[in-house]
Specification:
Blueprint (H helix, E strand, L loop, with lengths): L1 E9 L2 E14 L2 E15 L11 H7 L2 E10 L17 E10 L4 E10 L3 E13 L2 E10 L10 E12 L2 E5 L1
Antiparallel strand pairs: 1-2, 2-3, 3-4, 4-5, 5-6, 6-7, 7-8, 8-9, 9-10
Length: 172
């Protein structure tokens, strides 16, 4: 899969769009498709200085972000016959992030709706001991019973963040 992303800031919002080229293979058959993701994040970090409260309260209550997104917007995928096409796993999400300790520790919460799975709750913590490294652990729980029990599980991972010229790169 190949993905191109563009983001920008506009009036206190971070806006983003991604276009993905999806390539799948089963035996000798290939499927080529595309999908689009769109999202917006409202950032309250600049509000800290304008609030008249004790410094400790500012650090605990204000540093949050709220975001919405819709992912995997696109046509169904198929290999040989369009009659057996699979719909994109389109998903709508509402998320919340709170950052502590000079923004090195992040708590993330998301509520997502995905067709065929139902409502999914996700929670996680991300720790950035260095600017280039992110360590993550999380838990995902689905509310509607289905045969996809692997969605209820803990997960963990790490990411690398670096800048080259004016572009930033993330490997997770």
């Amino acid at each position: 899969n190949i993905m191109l992303t563009k983001s920008l800031q506009y009036g206190g919002y971070d806006l983003g769009i991604s276009v993905k080229l999806l390539i799948s293979k089963i035996a000798q058959y290939y499927s080529y498709n595309y999908a689009v993701d769109v999202g917006a994040v409202f950032n309250t970090f600049p509000m800290r200085e304008s609030l008249k409260m004790r410094d400790i309260l500012k650090k605990l209550l204000v540093p949050y972000q709220v975001g919405v997104s819709v992912r995997n917007i696109g046509p169904p995928s198929y290999f040989v016959d369009q009659t057996y096409a699979d719909p994109q796993p389109t998903e709508g999400a509402l998320g919340f992030t709170n950052k502590w300790f000079n923004e090195n520790l992040n708590y993330n919460f998301s509520l997502r709706y995905r067709a065929y799975y139902g409502i999914i709750l996700g929670q996680g913590i991300e720790y950035n001991p260095f600017r280039i490294l992110s360590l993550r652990v999380g838990y995902m729980h689905k509310f509607i019973d289905s045969r996809i029990s692997a969605l209820n599980d803990f997960s963990g991972g790490l990411g690398f963040n670096f800048n080259i010229a004016a572009a930033s790169f993330h490997i997770d």
